[in-house]
Design a protein that fits this description.
The structure is a single chain. With about 100 residues, the protein is mostly helical. Helices cover about 85% and strands about 0% of the residues. It has four helices and no strands. The longest helix has about 60 residues. It is elongated and about 105 Å long. It starts with a helix and ends with a helix.
Length: about 100
C-alpha cells in the first residue's frame, strides 16, 4: 500500500481513500524507529512468552500456598481473639459487680 502511495507521488486523493492502512503503517514505522536494538523474531518472542508463562505458573502456585497459609493464620488469630475475649468476660463481670455494689 505504501509503495503505491509513493508511486502516486503522495497523491492526497489516494491517501484519503486509504487513510487507515497508511496511518497504521506510519505509526508502526515510527514505533520501530524508536525501538533500540534489533527487532526480535517471532521465535524469540514465543520463547520469551513460554518462559514468562512458566514463571507465572510457578509464582501462582506459590501464591496459592501463601494464601492458604494466610487463611489459616487469620483463622487462628480469630480463634485466639475469641478465646481471650471469653476469658476476659468473667473478669469484666466481677469488676462490674464490684462497681455496682459500691454504688
Amino acid at each position: 500500500m505504501n509503495a503505491e502511495y509513493k508511486a502516486k507521488k503522495y497523491d492526497e486523493r489516494f491517501f484519503e481513500e486509504h487513510r487507515e492502512p497508511l496511518t497504521l503503517y506510519k505509526a508502526a514505522k515510527g514505533a520501530f524507529k524508536k525501538y533500540d536494538g534489533p527487532i526480535p523474531t517471532i521465535r524469540e518472542l514465543d520463547e520469551e512468552f513460554q518462559k514468562l508463562l512458566q514463571e507465572k505458573r510457578q509464582l501462582y502456585s506459590e501464591y496459592k500456598i501463601a494464601r492458604a497459609e494466610m487463611q489459616e493464620l487469620l483463622t487462628a488469630k480469630q480463634n485466639v481473639e475469641q478465646f481471650l475475649g471469653k476469658q476476659n468476660l468473667p473478669e469484666r463481670d466481677i469488676q462490674k459487680k464490684k462497681d455496682e455494689a459500691s454504688l
